[in-house]
Design brief:
Keywords: Isomerase, Membrane, Rotamase, Transmembrane, Transmembrane helix. Belongs to the cyclophilin-type PPIase family. Pfam families: Pro_isomerase. This is Peptidyl-prolyl cis-trans isomerase. With 214 residues, the protein is of the alpha+beta class. It has a single domain (44-212), classed as Cyclophilin. It has helices at residues 9-33, 75-86, 186-190, and strands spanning 55-60, 63-69, 97-99, 103-106, 146-149, 162-165, 177-184, 209-212. Strands 3-4-6-5-7-2-1-8 form an eight-stranded antiparallel sheet. The radius of gyration is 23 Å and the shape is elongated. Mean pLDDT is 90; it is low at 27-33.
């Protein structure tokens, strides 16, 4: 007859500890693998907008970023933005410049496309529509979620590239052309891939789609 051996209290405690450790490790792995796990994805069809003609939806890896455009502030810049969005020009374009919790930049239509990414030139590409003049006269506070057109070190060189700030940037006021502000989905932007060693991202995340609500 086989004699049944009872586990000691210390052995039971050790087993429970190992089970908890295994569960914690599995949970941590799932969370790390799924960076979008706790990010709310807003459905624009569930939201009532007072000016739907000026609402744009940028779909990023972790969900929708809903942007209200301000044609009263920067009419020419917003019109350029709308033209490119309606032509689906931003689809599959990289978030090529990302500073953690500060700024994301995208919109290089020439060198930032998923299937033809050029790391040597990204950030210098153009849309083919030419540059437009800076619109800096209107009062606009660059608070968290503000969207502006990127430019070179000179004014009047805005084209297709844009940035979204992830914290208040009062020094941007009067320096960059504003086009709008994120009203839903800022946390989606915080999940976009960045590097600690560089503002320019190797193997970056991409815009899935960018559409006007109407």
């Amino acid at each position: 007859m086989i004699k049944k051996i009872r586990a000691s209290i210390s052995e039971k405690i050790l087993l429970i500890f190992l089970m908890i450790l295994a569960m914690f490790s599995l949970t941590s792995y799932i969370i790390i693998k799924n960076k979008c796990l706790f990010v709310k994805n807003y459905n624009p069809n569930d939201i009532q907008f007072s000016n739907p003609e000026n609402i744009a939806i940028l779909n990023a890896p972790c969900g929708n970023v809903i942007i209200e455009l301000y044609p009263d502030v920067s009419p020419n810049a917003v019109e350029r933005f709308k033209v490119l969005i309606r032509a689906n020009r931003y689809d599959d374009v990289a978030f090529h410049r990302v500073i953690e919790n500060k700024l994301i930049q995208a919109g290089d239509l020439e060198f930032g496309r998923k299937n033809s990414l050029d790391y040597g030139k990204i950030g210098t590409g153009q849309s083919g529509l030419g540059t437009i003049n800076s619109e800096l006269e209107a009062e606009f506070n660059f608070t968290k979620g503000s969207v502006g057109l990127a430019r070179t070190f000179r004014n009047n060189t805005e084209d297709s590239q844009f940035f979204i700030i992830l914290e208040d940037e009062p020094l941007y006021e009067g320096e960059y052309t504003p086009v709008g502000r994120v009203i839903y989905g800022v946390k989606v932007l915080n999940k976009i891939k960045f590097l600690d060693s560089s503002e320019y991202v190797l193997r970056p995340d991409f815009i899935n789609t960018f559409r006007m609500l109407d």
